[in-house]
Design brief:
Chain B: Its main location: membrane. Chain B: Belongs to the binding-protein-dependent transport system permease family. HisMQ subfamily. Chain B: It is a multi-pass membrane protein. Chain B: It is found in: Cell inner membrane; Cell membrane. The complex is a heterodimer of chains A (about 250) and B (about 220). Chain A contains nine helices and ten strands. Chain A is of the alpha/beta class. In chain A, the strands form two sheets. Chain A has a six-stranded mixed sheet, with helices on both faces. In chain A, a hairpin with a 2-residue loop joins strand 4 and strand 5. Chain B is flat, with a radius of gyration of 21 Å. Classes of the chains: A alpha/beta (about 250), B mainly alpha (about 220). At the A-B interface, helix 2, strand 6, helix 3 and helix 5 of A face helix 6 and helix 7 of B. The structure holds adenosine-5'-triphosphate and magnesium ion. Magnesium ion binds near residues 45, 46, 166 and 167 of chain A.
Chain lengths: ~250, ~220
């Protein structure tokens, strides 16, 4: 493993009880790469991406993030997590805190920054996602698209080197999908290392260095978006893409 | 019949005022300790460990089932029989009442707090954990404030009923509001005036609590309005 590797997943198996949800997953994400993971519902996409910051625990194989292996011996998992931003399908904003407080709370408690500095950083990223004027509102007062952009800003405030996205647009009304995707595209343009579970094929085409297709807990095939979308080799991939495009 | 001047005298008398302070002090102490320990018991009740859940259930079963009067008398008269320790000077009526009422209050608050914490979605904890926050930070800044918002109306009800239950401590001669009134009546035989004065105290305290409850609910509901 060299210094260019951001995440290395090797031979990972995971079970929920007797049900094997991940089967021998190998995946390397280099710094600056944008990986898009797609696949049918229940194929293990969320589970895989959640193993990358240990929200889920894998039983076999190894996952190394920025040179740190994620194991039960690892005492400071919070250090790894603060360097890996995560954006959820349902935003998971804190409803009792304002937008600004959502963006400063972890900076203050985890990065131990002074309030003034945390607020400055938060405002920078809220401007970046184009909603600085909502800083004093509560999440419940925002539209879904705005909430998801706050969630992205909140993650960016920790100055992460990797961003994980788990279907960030699938809980949104269609007219709000674009504003979130545009934010993600601009992140990609800045060279952020990204792993995105999404079925937004145009997004994948535009930014993905590689698209990974999963089914039944396995990686079935992977390739550049152009090749994977136009000439998938596996029958299951063809069927899935066929359904998605119609 | 009812004599207004005696009634006013009773209201502004030093013993009754001190009795009221004792009632309030006792209630606050019991509530504070029960909130903390109730949270502990509540988290045991929601624990994945079967033995922990079983223990929590047993505790709640015992102290929700036992009448407050019985527990008070048991603690005050029974404990000194069990051990030398409880015959020492520090084992005052105040401490005994505090212990007895806390034992009961913990059982009631545990269930309220457990369900309030369960009502805070799992996504909240994950969202905070993904930002690198520690377990206790998540508890303090993310889950607890949201759980309290849910629990405040029920907690306030429990507090008000606790405040009135403290009057039972008159049987162990704690000098709270009711005991003080009884003493005064024993020498003056002015039932109406002294019971009336005590009632005024209870009503005033409960009214203040109700106002406080509205205020707390208003503050905690920021972001949900
Ligand atoms: N906590 C859990 N306990 C047991 N089974 C689970 C748990 N979480 C997920 N599963 C199962 O694991 C499988 C993979 O779930 P996962 O959420 O990773 O799929 P996914 O590819 O993200 O699907 P979707 O597109 O619907 O989000 C599913 O069959 C799901 O039912
Ligand atoms: Mg999923």
């Amino acid at each position: 493993m060299n210094t260019q590797t951001a995440i290395q997943v090797a031979g990972v198996n995971k079970w929920y009880g007797a049900f094997q949800v991940l089967k021998g997953i190998d995946l390397t994400v280099n710094k600056g790469e944008r990986i898009v993971i797609c696949g049918p519902s229940g194929s293990g996409k969320s589970t895989l991406i959640r193993c990358m910051n240990r929200l889920e625990v894998h039983q076999e194989g190894s996952i190394i993030v920025n040179g740190v292996e994620l194991t039960s011996q690892l005492k400071r998992i919070d250090r790894v997590r603060s360097d890996v931003g995560m954006v959820f399908q349902h935003f998971n904003l804190f409803p009792h805190l304002t937008v600004l407080e959502n963006c400063t709370v972890a900076q203050r408690w985890v990065r131990k920054l002074a309030k003034k500095q945390a607020v400055e950083i938060a405002m920078t990223y809220l401007e970046r996602v184009h909603i600085p004027e909502k800083a004093d509102k509560y999440p419940g007062q925002l539209s879904g698209g705005q909430q998801q952009r706050v969630a992205i800003a909140r993650a960016l405030c920790m100055n992460p080197s990797i961003m994980l996205f788990d279907e960030p647009t699938s809980a949104l009304d269609p007219e709000m999908v674009k504003e979130v995707l545009d934010t993600m595209i601009s992140l990609a343009a800045d060279g952020m290392t990204m792993v995105c579970v999404t079925h937004e094929m145009n997004f994948a085409r535009e930014v993905a260095s590689e698209v990974v297709f999963m089914d039944g807990g396995q990686i079935i095939e992977r390739n550049t978006p152009d090749i994977l979308f136009s000439a998938p080799t596996h029958e299951r991939t063809k069927r899935f893409l066929g359904k998605l495009l119609h | 019949m009812f004599q207004l001047d005696l009634f006013l005298q009773a209201i502004f008398s030093a013993p009754l005022f001190k009795g009221a302070l004792l009632t309030i002090g006792l209630s606050l102490c019991v509530m504070a300790v029960s909130l903390v320990l109730g949270m502990g018991l509540g988290s045991m009740a929601g624990s994945p460990r079967r033995s922990a859940r079983w223990l929590a259930t047993l505790y709640v079963w015992l102290f929700r089932g036992a009448p407050a009067l019985l527990v008070l008398l048991f603690v005050w008269n029974g404990l000194p029989q069990i051990s030398e320790i409880f015959r020492a000077g520090w084992f005052t009526p105040f401490f005994a009442a505090f212990l007895a009422l806390s034992l009961i209050q913990i059982a009631y608050l545990a269930e309220i707090l457990r369900s309030a914490f369960a009502a805070v979605g799992h996504g909240q904890r994950e969202g905070a954990a993904a930002l690198g926050m520690h377990r206790w930070q998540i508890f303090l800044v993310i889950t607890m404030p949201q759980a309290l918002r849910i629990a405040v109306p029920a907690l306030m009800n429990e507090f008000i009923s606790l405040l009135k239950t403290t009057s039972l401590a008159t049987v162990i001669s704690l000098k709270e509001l009711m005991t003080v009134s009884q003493f005064a009546i024993a020498t003056s035989f002015r039932f109406l005036e002294w019971y009336g004065a005590a009632l005024v105290y209870y009503l005033v305290i409960v009214s203040v609590l109700t106002l406080a409850q509205n205020r707390i609910e208003y503050v905690l509901s920021r972001g949900y309005r």
